[in-house]
Amino acid sequence: MTTIYFEDLSAGMVFELGSVNVTRDEIVEFATRFDPQPFHVDDDAAERSMFGGLIASGWHTGSMWMRLFADTVLSRTDSRGSPGVEELRWLAPVRPGDTLTGESTIVSTAPSSRDDTRGTAVVASSMTNQDGVVVMTLRSRGMFGRRPA
User: Is the full-model pTM beyond 0.85?
Assistant: First the structure.
């Protein structure tokens, strides 16, 4: 597989990330460890909550996106990490049985002003459920190596 370098990325480039199925057990396991709010870990409490049933932690949804992004994009690029996320929104509940599909679009690119071996790409991403409802949006920056001379 050919490595994708900073120079290969351009505004408007879209990466289809694939899909992930969400299970009740994974929701509870993740939340028990990292976000133990009642509507993530307890079916009865979740039923009584404003969500009317068990939902995934937003951090779990973000982690599922990250796995898809890592497998589909980062594994093919000269990734150099990320200076962070600029915006993250959880727009709709993610429930057991949902199938989430990810997509990421390059918004802009710029060579580094401090390191001529890399550049930065701004990426807008989303996760959509099986009904076409956008459940999460994310705007982040990634650093990518420049093509060797």
Answer: yes
